[in-house]
Specification:
single chain, 194 residues, mainly alpha, Ferritin, 6 helices
Length: 194
């Protein structure tokens, strides 16, 4: 082998090694339907669970608020329902953005599926009611539901999340849910919230 052929083969080998290294460091994105290596870093499951839970809660509150606004209820309860609809729509948009930024996809774990089913059952029960009976049941559901969400945020979602932006959103959501709970108690009890 001549020196020229040897140098060409050597240079070709170095070039191939460089290309192989670049491919290993920057693999092509998976094709549609391709199985992705599960050993690759995955988002923290606590962040995914937190955001997925908030999606279910927000969608439930929006739908329940729309239902309330379609019923014969007093002006204060109608205003409350409209506030809930607006606040939970805004929260849902933030969750969608955070899901993308934190790379925490919205999923349906068994716990999230159970929450979704419970919310659907509650709305179905409320849908069969009208007038004052609906109004009282709706406000009772808002008191109970918002109290449950506060507990879930405090006991599970915040301690289980690791992404700083997700944690901040959970704290902000907690403040909003706390205000919603106080207002529901005020409307249901007929006296100012403390």
């Amino acid at each position: 082998m001549s020196i020229t052929n040897y140098l060409c083969a050597f240079a070709t080998g170095i070039a191939l090694a460089a290309v192989s290294g670049a491919i290993a460091q920057n693999p092509a994105p998976p094709e549609r339907g391709e199985v992705v290596d599960t050993a690759a870093p995955q988002p923290a499951s606590g962040d995914t669970e937190a955001l997925s839970t908030l999606v279910v809660v927000n969608r439930h509150e929006i739908t329940a608020a729309e239902l309330a606004q379609s019923k014969e209820i007093d002006a204060a309860t109608r205003d409350y329902a409209k506030m809930l609809e607006n606040d939970h729509r805004a929260n849902l948009e933030k969750v969608d953005t955070l899901s993308k930024l934190a790379r925490a996809p919205i999923t349906e774990s068994p716990e999230v599926a159970q929450l979704k089913s419970k919310a659907a059952d509650e709305r179905a029960s409320l849908g069969r009611l009208d007038g004052k009976e609906f109004q009282n049941a709706y406000l009772d559901a808002m008191v109970q539901g918002h109290a449950e969400v506060l507990s879930k945020i405090d006991d599970k979602l915040l301690p289980g999340s690791s992404d700083a932006a997700v944690q901040q959103h959970l704290r902000s959501t907690r403040e909003s849910v706390s205000r919603h709970l106080a207002k529901a108690k005020e409307l249901r009890g007929g006296s100012p919230a403390h």
